[in-house]
Amino acid sequence: MNPTLTTPVNEGDIVIVTGVVDEYNGVTEVKPANQSAIVVTGQGTVPAPQNITTGHYPMEEKEGRLVRVVGTVSSKWTYGFELNDGTGPIDIYVSSYDATGIDLSGINNGDEYTVIGIVTQYDSSGPEYLSNYEICPRRQADLIPGGEPVPPGGYTEGPDPAIFAPDLNETTQIGFNAPAGSHVVIRIYNLQGVHVTTVYDGVTSGRTIAWDGKSQIRQKLPIGVYIINVQIVNIKTGKTSIKNYPVVISTKLK
Ligand SMILES: [Ca+2]
Fold this sequence. Notes:
- This protein has strands at 13-17, 19-24, 27-32, 38-43, 50-51, 66-77, 80-84, 89-93, 112-121, 133-136, 143-145, 158-160, 163-164, 172-190, 195-211, 224-234, 240-249.
- By secondary structure, the chain is mainly beta.
- The protein has three domains: 13-43, no CATH class; 50-145, CATH 2.40.50.140; 162-249, Immunoglobulin-like (Sandwich), CATH 2.60.40.
- A hairpin with a 5-residue loop joins strand 16 and strand 17.
- The chain binds calcium ion.
- Calcium ion (CA) binds at residues 26-28, 60, 63, 121, 129.
């Protein structure tokens, strides 16, 4: 990314960098003193992306990691767009400086996208540097239109796992299948029948939605059983189907 970097470094290389740890607008960096402080020692395996919610918190723990998010484009600008899966927005940023060659012209508000990229940050305000995170896709193939590729046999319906611990930053993936072009709303209720959050409201033919166990106003919910209510309305026929699945919020062992 640094224009003066002349050591050839390629994806999959194992690299030893010797330098001084610094921070630039919230991004932790290692500043090598010179070209000989960057040594390619061999070939490794590129880590698989971690699935996270667009509203993941704290995002600082994901900085520098390769992640995958799925959501709806909620706004767009020249060098990026905002993606939201119902848990909160994240900026997807394509830097012209990084020369990825990524073309955003086919992406519009309301589109569903799966995005793979590296979490970075541009927080010029400080002093805590805990805001303005961005996901930077590496190449055009990291922007997958229409949400995830539909797996053979469709999505596994219901929550996976059915018990999860938000205190350990665990999420559950809520899967559903729908006729093409259905309006789908996924609401979550507690056992008293009180609506605690809506994790998805959009047009789709099926996907998985991550839920991090937080309420609509991004507060932790008490441990217990919750009901996931999936309402699917076929826009062409008006036919409505409703499915309910229990899910358990647990906590870490004390
Ligand atoms: Ca940071």
